[in-house]
Amino acid sequence: MTYRSLSELRPLRLDTVAAIGGVLLAAVLFPLRFLTSQIYLNTVPVILGTACTLYLLSLYQRDDPGAFPTLPSAISMALPSAVLVGLTGLVLLTVVQGARTHLFFGLASVVGTLVIGQIVFVSDRDLHPGLLLLQIVCFAFVFRFTALYATPGYIGIDIWTHHEFIDAILADQSLGAISHDKHYGSPFYHLLVAASSLLYDVPIRAALYLSVGLVMPLSVLLVYATTNLLVSPRWAVLATALYAFASHVARWGMHLIPTSLGLVFFLAMLYALLRVMRIEYTIRDFSLLLLSSIAVILTHQVSTFIMLVLLLAAFLAQFVFVIGPLGLTRLDASVFRTKKPVNLVGLVVFNLGLTIFVWSLTPYRQDSFLATVLSYFTQTLEESAGFLNTAGDSSDGAKAGAEAAPTLIEQLVPYVDTLGFLLLLGATFVGCLYVVHRRRAEQSVFTLLLAAAFMLVFILGLPMFGIRSFIPTRWFAFLYAPMAVLGAIGVRTLRGNMTPALVAAVLLVVVLVYPGAMVLAAESNAENPVFSTQHERLAYDESELAAAESIGELTGSPQGEEIRPDQQLHTDHPYQTLFSRTGAYPSTTTATVPEDGVANHGYTVYRSAQSTEATYVTDGDGNTRIAHLSRGQLCRPDQATVYTNGDVTMCTPSPASN
């Protein structure tokens, strides 16, 4: 292996300096792993250092005369059929087994590997982007709709509240039915599902799947359209696959709430934004951008804030290229076509003003949404902000309250959950280094780079200081869009510049590990977790749903103010949310069960899942922990059983004890 000289490659150019700086930053951050067990502090420095090192190797290796290894034509032609057979097998497995089991997720991982393997390793002659996109979309449909098919009710927690809102809108034939809630100011999701229910003459659940449910898998094509504005079809297809297989993207394709629809409009807005930056746009193109941004504002508040972060990134990119520091305006025409930066000041001001106006009129907790959010953020800064204050981080949730030393599986599960994200993050780092080269940098790619950087600050940076007011877990699916585009550019960079043997090894890791890691992540299998002793099941079977309905009928579904404090119902989390969000028993909360002790509540509900799966309770100090409870720990012998269906039991104070 030979290398170019440093003087020949001008090592002080921006991308080289950034890569060297990335290696140094990774070295500085590495010791933080000894101060905290936060998963991202343990892993991101390693990923950053590895990505920067690979990029530096791609710079200084001489071009190897050997061609990059590709699959034989016979295998390339057979792989689409193999993927189709695999997808058929996924459907049959779900129908026969009645759920997405471990076998389902194993086969899904293999199918995902076959798809990405085609994209990366087939020759240019055998590459058919349309056929690959069809496979990706079919995989997205099958992976999501098998979960929806196998789940009797809904997947997730918030969806039950939105079902009640839609039902109220249909009953009153008016949006005024939810005038007390923050979604009154962003009602597009609820109106869409309600209209679909009326149009198709189907129940709300079916209407949801026929509207938002159908749109979610198709929305991945917007990532292809966006990436194809920058690179060739092969890498645009790769970006589509990286995005479609991502765990958090799959999550919002199954937990269908306003976040899901907000994500669709966000992707449309991202495409329109890059389109006006890359072409000589017309009024139609800018109208699409404007309408997409308005749709986000009228759909979901968190999505709106993320969109504003994207617009801020685009505005800063415009500022950079108007000022022109470091010679960034001297583009290489062979990479990107020279184009004057688009003026986005008017768009940013309009969307910011409309957002403030809508949020000021949106009711939320006895005040406007804007005032409440600002109050919460101020309170967070005053009470819980602090360096490395990661208490309550979701990534450590499985360990909360645990006193015993964690088992091997407990130590490995967080890494399995984040492995797919870390692989994509590494490819994103390489893509970012590629686009900051002064002759390859331009407004569109800098927008993606800055947007990804800002989102990572909200997702990974602020929680390290105890600031979680921005609900960082909702940001991942949005972050995956610019990451997928930059990640595809990063993979293309390594494939084109590194020696074939080394790049083939790197790409094999991506092909073999990325799909499986995303499939096994908790967000992809919330209705039937792969690691059921570490992750709660965010769906319910027929007996659990029937029990909630029957208990509601038994108690008369009293209003919250009609229930005395001693009559509050206690059960595990997340099951307690089903009672409160459906109105079956509004005053319901998580049970307090001391370690190896019993609950001291009057009204409790036990379900068999508490003994076999991961469910959450609180200990005597109020800390949340995973517990495997026996029936006697929640329903004591001195209580009376007022309802049971063999799987779920409700216990109340015994009359004999009074």
UniProtKB/TrEMBL annotation:
Keywords from the UniProt entry = Cell membrane, Glycosyltransferase, Membrane, Transferase, Transmembrane, Transmembrane helix
Transferase in keyword set: yes
InterPro entries named in the record: LipidA_mod_glycosyltrf_83
* Positions of transmembrane segments: 12-32, 39-57, 77-96, 103-121, 127-150, 206-225, 252-274, 281-299, 305-329, 341-361, 418-436, 448-471, 477-494, 501-522
A single GO molecular function, which one? Answer: pentosyltransferase activity
Q: Which GO terms describe its cellular component?
A: plasma membrane
Q: Where is it localised?
A: Cell membrane
Report which superkingdom the organism of origin falls in: Archaea
Look up and give the membrane topology term: Multi-pass membrane protein
**The keyword Disulfide bond appears for this protein:** no
One record GO biological process = lipid biosynthetic process
Task: Output this protein's name.
Answer: Glycosyltransferase family 39 protein
